[in-house]
Each structure stands twice: as C-alpha cells, then as structure tokens.
Amino acid sequence: MKLDEVLKVFRVFSERTRLRIYLALLEAELCVGELMALLKLEQSLLSHQLRILRQAGLIEARKSGRRVFYRPAADHRKQLEPLLSGLFKEEFEMTSRKVKSIKEKNVCRLAGKKEKELPPRSARTRAVDSARRKA
Fold first, then answer.
1. How far is CA 64 from CA 28, 34, 61, 68, 135, in A?
2. Whole-prediction pTM value?
3. Residue 105: which residues within 8 A CB-CB, separation 6 or more?
C-alpha cells in the first residue's frame, strides 16, 4: 500500500463504528439486518457508515434479491486482517462470538431463497394498462 492509501484507511477507521463494522465483516459476510442486530445501530446510521467504507474501497456489496450483503474487499483484507486481529484481539474475539450468535438467528434467512415472482400479467390487465396510458 502507498502512503496515501494507508492514510485513507486510517482516516476511515478513525470512526469507532466503522472499525466495528469492518471487524464484524472480517468474520463473515453480513446483511444490513445482521449488522444492525450485531452493532445495535439504526439503519440510517449503518448505511451511512457502510457507504463511507465502500467509497474507501474497504468493503464490497453483493445484492441478493432485496437484501444487500457486505464483505471486506479481498485486496485490503489480506493486508488488514492480520494487523487488526493483532491490535484488537479481545474485540476481534468478542465480535466473532457475536457474529456466530447473529448468524444462528437467521436474520437474513430469506436472502438465499429466490424472491417470489409475480404471476404473469393477463392479457386483460395489459389491455387495461395500455388504454390508461393512451388516455
């Protein structure tokens, strides 16, 4: 990592909440609901912090249906995981236990299932919609 990149990472981790989010994501890929339950944060605050982590290139998002799952970016993970697990050993272990507990609760259990598909629209429904657009 270049000096500017290191400074950017340290700036991002200067906020305790972002560091806690990143430590949790080092344990497992988590959805927003799981992170909210784990960190006891409101969705708006969590989304704001996740956006900052994404803009810094520290995490990646994967959408599955209506849910978004987050994980550390692979290139940063290789460099940061050994450093952070050494510096924050107790926090890392506590976070690990909490993540396992949250995962057992299946907060995002529906994410792996295919979202319900709407039934095909009938010809009559299409004709009514078409007539409304013309009117």
1. 16, 14, 10, 6, 38
2. 0.73
3. 37
Q: Please give the domain boundaries of the chain with CATH numbers for all domains.
A: 3-114 (1.10.10.10)
Contact 62, 68 (CB under 8 A): yes
| Cα–Cα separations (whole angstroms), residue 9 to 6, 13, 66, 86 | 5, 6, 29, 17
Q: Using N-to-C axis directions, what is the helix angle for 32-39 and 16-27, rounded to 10°?
A: 120
Token code pair at residue 32: 């927003």
Most confident of 8-12, 44-48, 97-101, 119-123: 44-48
- The sign of the torsion formed by the CA atoms of 60, 86, 106, 33 equals negative
